[in-house]
Amino acid sequence: MAATRQLSALVALCLATTALAHGHHDELTDEQKSAPIDAILWIHMALQAFVWGMLFPLGMVLGITRSRWHVPIQSAGILLTVGGVFLGHLHGGRSFLKSFHGTFANIILLVLLVQAVLGVYLKLHIHEKSLRPWMVRLHGVVGKAYPVIGWAQMLFGAVAFRGFCRGGHLGQCAAHYIMGSAFIAYGTIMAILLLVGEGWVRRSGRSPEWWDSWVIMLWGIVNTFTEHHGGAWSVKDMQHTIMGVLWWAGGALGIFLARNNQRNVVPGLIIILTGWGMSNHAQALMISTMVHSMFGYTLMLAGITRIIEICFVPNAAHLDPPSGDNQSENTLAEGARTPVFPPPDPEALAKASAARAFRHLPPFLLVASGVLFISGTDEELKFVSDMGMDHVTYILIMFSLAFTIYTMIVSLIHLSTVTGKAATETTENAIELRTPTTAKWYSRVPTAEAQSSSNHHERQHIIGDDEDE
To answer: Are 255 and 212 within 8 A, CB to CB?
Structure first.
């Protein structure tokens, strides 16, 4: 009954928010455009950024690990989102033109309602052998889409706030926002695969470059036929179209070379060539030229570090010393005092830690490239130029934002290894609660003294417990 009442309340809130009338107009006067932003709207933006940029992704990870904190956090996120929608409709001050930001907000409320209904249904534990397994999958798919939905809505909100991407600027905005977001997604997926996904990669029987090459080839096919819209060919049309050809041609080669689970450098080489092309993109404003150049250099560096990681950085799993109960001083296994494996080589430990440290470079640089490309539209850079800001300050602001985003990414990846089911399985399979200093992707290069001290003093920190479904 409690779950039913909560669901009814959520439905009522969603209906109320969609029924609110708000002053979005087809045309605005100069007074409406220049009116100050009131505190309610600032609270709306800060609240929704917190919920969709931090709270919902956190709840998503806790759901994947089956932590008992998943339901409370996601429930709080839903309530805060609905409250934020009310604030977005009730603010005063500046008025805004109608935009997709408001339309997409109604779609998000529908998604939240569907997810809440699925969550209540799963709590009832009915139709265990028929409908429930499919609903579990659907609930997981919708939940994992939260970061993408939130990211898209935050971009729509920024566009609506500044009044960008209208008229002839829509095509450029779409290109920059879609491709920039794709680079950030690429960096996120690469971070997952390189930091905690090696087991999945081995089980799939495909090298990471096989997956990369397929995405690059398919994206190149789309890009080849969508960059020119008839009429005379401009220099930009030629450059963008030939980049599409580069991607599908190189992607096809990468797929062939990645057969039989072989690694290759083709995706990294394509990233380098793309960065070189973008760094030489002609722009109308000097600040735009400098931002595009920095985007290109960052993308080239991402490709170079990717090639180095493939060719010269050894697999950390191959360098980690074997671990298990037979090597523990506290184990009950017979012959525990005589290690089955030779003692770990300090040089091998240093190489393993250095490999794990280097693996952060390619995904971070891809994230930074994506942020720079999203921020490189003509309208935005003209606005920045009119403010009197130079390219150095602007680029450093974008890199600061990239650091923030990547911090969130790696924090969530780490959280997935120490919460809920993941943490419980780790502790149930071990007799002692000792933190393995050589098995963490974020370990520093160990010294003999630090390693000896950590073996005696560090203990594993567990957040959350299993939630029985």
So the answer is: no
CA distance 369 to 402: 9
pLDDT of residue 61: 95
Is-contact 334 306, C-beta < 8 A?
no
Only one residue has tokens 């630090």, namely 450
Residue 241 pLDDT > 80: yes
Angle between helices 391-418 and 286-311 (to 10 degrees): 40
Please give the distance of CA 282 from its chain centroid, rounded to a whole number. Answer: 30
Tokens representing residue 13 in the block: 């809130």
| Residue that has been written with the tokens 């090459």 in this structure | 213
Contacts (Cβ under 8 Å, ≥6 apart) of 134: none
- How confident is the model over 389-423, as pLDDT tens digits? 999 999 999 999 999 999 999 999 999 999 888 77
Number of CB atoms found within 10 A of residue 58's CB = 21
* CA proximity to 185, closest of 363, 312, 28: 363
N-term to C-term CA, the chain: 19
Count Cβ atoms below 10 Å from residue 286 Cβ, excluding itself: 12
Cα angle 358, 266, 183 (rounded to 5 degrees) comes to: 60
pLDDT tens digits along 249-285: 999 999 999 988 899 999 999 999 999 998 887 787 8
Q: Are 439 and 451 in contact, with CB atoms under 8 Å apart? A: no
- Residues 66-98: pLDDT tens digits? 999 999 999 999 999 999 988 888 877 777 778
Q: Which of 287, 316, 281 is nearest to 299 (CA)?
A: 281
Strand, helix or coil for residue 29: coil
Tell me the two tokens of residue 64: 């994947």
Any residues with CB less than 8 A from the CB of 191 and at least 6 apart, and which?
A: 360, 363, 364, 406, 409, 410, 413
Structure-block tokens of residue 20: 């609110």
Find out whether 369 and 271 touch, Cβ atoms under 8 Å.
no
Which pair of structure tokens corresponds to residue 239?
Answer: 């450059």
The answer to whether the CB of 66 falls within 8 A of the CB of 467 is yes
Minimal CA–CA distance to 406: which of 359, 345, 466, 440?
A: 359
The angle at the Cα of 182, spanning 176 to 183, to the nearest 5 degrees, equals 90
Whether 156 shows a pLDDT value over 60: the answer reads yes
Domain residue extents for the chain: 36-163, 168-316+351-423
CA 327/CA 439 separation, integer angstroms? 15
Which residues lie across from 441 on neighbouring strands?
Answer: none
The residue type at 181: S
Q: What is the pLDDT of residue 447?
A: 46
CA 269-274-280 angle, to 5 degrees, is 130
